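So, read this over?
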Amino acid sequence: MIKLFGRKKWISIMVVGLMLIISGCSSKQSSSEKDSSEAFPNGPIKVIVSYSAGGSSDLGARLLMQYVEKELGVPVVVENRPGAGGWVGWEELLMAEPDGNTIALINTPNLMTGYMDPSTGRKQNLESFELIANHITDPGVIAVRKDDERFNSVEDLIEYAKKNTTTTTSTGALGDDHIASLKLNKELETKFNAVHNGGTGESVTAVLGGHVDVLFANIGDVTTLSKDNEVKVLAVMAEERSPILPDVPTLGEEGYEGIVSGSSRGYAAPKGVDKEKMKVLREAFEKAINNPEQIEKMKETGLQVNYLDQDPYMELLREDEKGIKGISDLLGW
């Protein structure tokens, strides 16, 4: 014969059982919530491009993101935010929630000149960003309309610009195009006058339409234009000839030594993103940038891939920062 438990004992057993059930459910729920919060990325990634659509920065970003998207397994959406030499987009980045879901393309020297210029009053600096990786190093070029009979060589252009105010394109005040024209003015006593706009697409339109005399841009901007016989590329502003435009001389070869210009392009997140999330982003970008198919496609569009992870990328940016300090007199600082 089985002896039944007393009423009080049954109540105690029921309370303990109920507590165990609740604890188990809570544990499962907590574990589920934890797994969900740690899953990254679990939604679309926004990539801010601080220039108008159609330029080499925009095209390079959109091409690379096809490969980044495959590595991350979520949609990667490019959004153009032109203006203020890139700082419309970069300020949006730095104001974004540091959750890893918003990143941006960053370009030199615009990034540094935008906070080094005392007139801007910006407090940001390189430490405001979580660097992901460098993607492209793109030397500067000087080009004119194909049918512009005034200039058949860079010497023709320089001699003309010494005597006449000559308009040049610029993707924003204190960007690499603008700085290149200032260097020429200082070193060669030319009279280049930069016309600032929102991006390379606008620059190309201005030159082809005859509204601006000279296209100061990058190799990636003019490769297709040169092949399509729309512009004459007069010189590359680099120490050595580019393998992408091997028939175009450098300024040094034409007798104008020591004048170089270009832009590096990489990616960053706002400061404060979780280390594990940054690790996910950096690994995805490393694989995407080093993908041989991606490298070949970039070459076809005139862009030279130069992968650097966050540490050497920071060294590159600091060297560029030093270079800008060295021409502060040109910039009126």
